[in-house]
Amino acid sequence: MNYCITIFGCKKYQDIAHVFVKELEFWNKNLLSNSVFFTDDFIEGLNIKQIEIKEDISWSMRVAKSLENIKEDYILFLLDDYIIKEKVNINHVEMIINNSKSFGVKYCRLIDIPSEKSFGDMRPIKVDNYGINLQPAIWDRKFLISILKKIDSNPWITETSLHNFFTINENNYQGAFGYNFIDYYLNAVIKGKWSRKVPSNLIACSDRPKMSRFEWLYYRTKVVTYNSLNSNTRLIVKSILKKIGFNFHS
Predict the structure, then answer these.
(1) Other beta carbons within 10 Å of 21
(2) Which end of the chain has less Cβ packing within 10 Å, N or C?
(3) How far is C-alpha 9 from the chain's CA centre?
(4) Residue 32, φ and ψ in degrees, nearest 5
(5) How far apart are CA 122 and CA 100, in angstroms?
(6) Percentage, residues of the chain above pLDDT 70
(7) Comparing C-alpha atoms, which of 12, 179, 206, 214 is closest to residue 97?
(8) Least confident span in 43-57, 149-163, 228-242
(9) Angle (CA) 58 59 60, round 5°
(10) Phi then psi for 131, rounded to 5 degrees?
């Protein structure tokens, strides 16, 4: 392969790491030899190459230093607490990488693009519709390292700052594309518990509890309510909640 699959996690949540690697094997067992799991300390029994970064530095700096330990020009960036609930055609990934190299693409988002649900060709990412997601995505490794070092912060600040490092050209982020390649991408861990959508057979090796039906309903109600608000209303609601004691990461 002409790229590296990079997965980021930590020893404190090693049960999640084991579940993710099991899921990666479900995609294609041959992927493990071309994948690297970056962690803050060695995880026993993890069937994948590990690179440890033990320095006491910010999250984005830890990721940047991790990526300096590999040589591939492009990476498939993944976090271990998100699960792709379908098999992935690796030939498509390699096609996207080859196109990225040919056209100087710095970033390619691999999940569904709002308002552009059809699967197929790479499309420019429009500023008006959405920003830049850290993952799952194809990144120019050196470009991502340079961004992460400048951000030097936690995961939430990192995610919401990425778009600031792309030039805007005719309402598109220059060098950023989307390819509707992964149809179902699941945030597997919510508030420390497994999402109710995670298949039970996948997490049988973990002692982490699954969300109750009530917890899941409460969470989904909040998400649906938030998504139904326009950006101005969201800011107003956020401001009110801050005044009464709620804290936000970004």
Answers:
(1) 21
(2) C
(3) 11
(4) -60, -35
(5) 10
(6) 89
(7) 179
(8) 228-242
(9) 95
(10) -100, -150
Question: What are the residues facing 178 on neighbouring strands?
Answer: 109, 123
pLDDT at 249 over 70: no
Cα 51 to Cα 8, 17, 154, 207, 215: the distances in Å are 10, 13, 20, 25, 35
- What distance in Å separates the CA atoms of residue 63 and residue 61, rounded to the nearest whole number? 5
Q: Which of 85, 117, 87 is nearest to 196 (CA)?
A: 85
For residue 113, list its beta bridge partners: 116
Cβ proximity of 6 and 76 under 8 Å = yes
Cα–Cα–Cα angle for 220, 126, 153, rounded to 5 degrees: 65
Find the length of the chain.
250
Phi/psi at 98 (5° precision): -60, -40
Tokens representing 65?
Answer: 């230093």
- pTM value? 0.83
Element (H, E) at 225: helix 213-228
Q: Provide the pLDDT for residue 145.
A: 97
Please report how the helices 59-67 and 141-151 are oriented relative to each other, as an axis angle in degrees rounded to 10. 150
The more confident residue out of 119 and 70 is 70
One-letter amino acid identity for 57?
I
Query: How far is C-alpha 182 from the chain's CA centre?
Result: 12
- The total of other beta-carbon atoms located within 10 Å of residue 106's CB is 21
> Over 50: is that where the pLDDT of 250 sits?
no
Map residue 132 onto helix, strand or coil: coil
